[in-house]
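Input record (Table S2, row 281):
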Amino acid sequence: LIVLDGRPIAKRIRSDVKLAAEKFRHDGIIPTLAVVVPTNDGMADAYVRAIVKGAMACAVEARIIKLPQPSTTELIAKEINKLAEDDSVHGIILQTPLPEGTKIDDLAMLIPPAKDVDGVSPTSAGQTLFGQQAFAPATAEAVLAILEEYKIPLEGKHAVIVGRSRVVGKPVAHLLIEKHATVTISHSRTKDIRHFTKQAEVLVVAVGSPGLIKSKDISPDVVVIDVGINVTDSGELVGDVSPDVASVAAALTPVPGGVGPVTTAIILQHTITAVGLHLIR
Ligand code: NAP
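Output record (NAP complex):
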């Protein structure tokens, strides 16, 4: 089994980010990523801490804006609009989960595409789909970065994705098509998921259900990317893929240490790109 370790990839991205960030700082520009946190949520807080730690390590400033509870669409919108106007802010992330009663569709569109470092706005999604310059969701890019790093052939391969969310399943499908894979997307309404996962040469699982995919669901030699992050009752971090998959698959991302660290590094990389976009505006 090849362990598709994301940490060395993340480390390399961060060291490139640091070089670029220090150059900008030398010119008086502090690359700044703002993270709007609208709820109290343990998983979200852990993710935000990881972003702050990563940012600090590579000279990017992370500005965390924790909104008063309970937050509302109006409060979140006001904060995003303020950050959109703020020339000292280069990247904006709206951390999920959102408070009850608020909708991502009312908020994501407020993030200007040039600051949308996690590719959540409809404009970013549309431009990405049309092959135009835009930020794709960082997690989707992280999946592709891992496949590229480990030189996993994609052209003509059958890639099966489990999960069709806007931030993972759908953009991963698009990026894999761009790499000339043949893509099947499955989801909660798919009849007999296993029928598809068995055919996968590359399997990307992004559901949020621990142990969903087991060794009996896959064929030998499949490359498995486990995007899922779940916390067990004992507080352990696990993916969507059961550990017995390791005995059948050719390659597998660990959780933690696979897609997660690459995702946070790509957010920082996008922030540096956003500084460049800001300068040419
Ligand atoms: P999400 O928005 O909840 O989407 C989950 C998807 O899984 C949906 O498309 C859903 O189908 C599908 N699904 C649910 N139950 C299923 C089942 N039994 N069989 C097949 N498909 C099923 O979640 P997400 O934001 O994409 O995140 C997915 C996982 O990835 C979570 O564990 C999350 O924590 C993790 N994640 C990790 C990173 C990272 O950096 N590593 C980043 C983002 C997310 P329907 O559409 O039919 O409901």
